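Retro notes (design track)

What went well: tokenization of the new backbones is finally stable.
What didn't: we kept losing track of which sequence belonged to which structure.
Fix going forward: every design gets posted as structure first, then sequence, in one message. First example under the new rule, 368 residues:
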């Protein structure tokens, strides 16, 4: 896709380019990546086009989707894309935040520094390597990946939002491996980010590790990779990706209140199903204590979920099924979401309250 290197400056660009699940809506000024699933048209990220042409590309995309009677749901879109869809009657609800490490970032004064130093003291060694440099490397990495997946709260792959490892060398990918006492304990594959045909940075997309080691394997790899990337011409950014549902809601006037409420409940009480809080806190460890005093170290970028209609629960649920966050089938989804939310609320209630079950029930019903 020729537009990738011209307009692939957003985090998801390379994953979209490489993922065969995506189709591409063509336009003379650019394109939009999407997938039709469960009767819903799901698109991710921003249009591949010049910013000045985004309005025209989005207008044509919306028109075609309406002619096909395909409800649109967008994920991980930028504020600029959200505004364009808002002009066509869509809502854009805060979906989470991306953490992007900039060229002036230093480990000094960051919470993540303690985690990295602990890993280094334990003897963790990080190095970049090609997959074909060791005939046993792919098998070792597969075993790490499978063991890692079994520790996840959501064991199904998150299609569209995250890419699965291929265990082979690919253009515009680099992989760093972590070893402890000579044994492979984790790896991170970074994907290239481009702007106007120039490589501007990398996205830490594929992250697998042995969590039983109880050390910050991912953070140690990122630290070494960042030191390497900073020496290369044109480097501007290393994206740590999305922390779903995290961060404050927007005040731009085009949020869907129902989707916003579901997002709040998911983040605060749905961590039995997906580790929203853990992911956010991990990425937040890279933030400076004061953004005003350290303006060129980290960019925190808001992302948005695009929907239409006052009660868009059906298309949103189907979109979340399509990416793997929710189990397939609306009945399964409703039961899964209810069970995870109630379990999370009960856990928080027990931690913070000495009240009785009547108080808990009143709080639960008020939330819905």
């Amino acid at each position: 896709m020729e537009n990738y290197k011209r307009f692939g400056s957003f985090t998801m660009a390379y994953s979209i380019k490489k993922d065969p699940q995506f189709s591409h809506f063509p336009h003379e000024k650019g394109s939009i990546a999407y997938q039709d699933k469960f009767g819903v048209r799901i698109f991710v990220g921003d249009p591949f086009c010049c910013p000045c042409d985004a309005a025209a590309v989005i207008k044509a995309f919306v028109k075609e989707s309406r002619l096909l009677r395909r409800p649109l749901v967008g994920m991980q879109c930028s504020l600029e894309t959200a505004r364009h869809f808002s002009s066509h009657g869509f809502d854009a609800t805060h979906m989470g935040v991306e953490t992007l490490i900039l060229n002036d970032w230093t480990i000094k004064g960051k919470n993540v520094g303690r985690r990295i130093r602990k890993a280094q003291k334990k003897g963790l060694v990080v190095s970049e390597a090609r997959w074909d440099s060791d005939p046993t490397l792919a098998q070792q990495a597969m075993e790490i990946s499978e063991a890692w997946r079994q520790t996840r709260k959501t064991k199904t792959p998150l299609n569209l939002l995250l890419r699965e490892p291929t265990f082979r060398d690919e253009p515009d990918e680099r992989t760093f491996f972590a070893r402890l006492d000579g044994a492979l304990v984790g790896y991170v594959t970074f994907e290239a980010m481009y702007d106007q045909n120039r490589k501007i940075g990398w996205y830490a997309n594929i992250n697998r590790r042995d969590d039983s080691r109880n050390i910050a394997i991912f953070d140690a790899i990122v630290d070494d990779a960042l030191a390497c990337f900073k020496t290369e011409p044109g480097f501007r950014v290393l994206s740590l990706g999305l922390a779903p549902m995290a961060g404050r809601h927007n005040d731009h006037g085009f949020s869907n209140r129902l989707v916003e409420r579901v997002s709040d409940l998911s983040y605060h009480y749905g961590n039995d199903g997906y580790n929203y809080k853990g992911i956010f806190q991990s990425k937040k460890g890279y933030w400076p204590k004061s953004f005003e005093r350290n303006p060129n170290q980290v960019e925190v970028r808001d992302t948005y979920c695009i929907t239409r209609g006052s009660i868009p629960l059906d298309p949103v649920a189907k979109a979340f099924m399509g990416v793997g966050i929710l189990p397939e089938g609306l009945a399964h989804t409703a039961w899964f979401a209810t069970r995870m939310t109630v379990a999370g609320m009960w856990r928080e209630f027990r931690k913070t309250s000495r009240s009785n079950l009547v108080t808990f029930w009143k709080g639960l019903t008020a939330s819905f």
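Added context from the reviewer: The domain at 1-328 is CATH 3.40.630.30 (Aminopeptidase).
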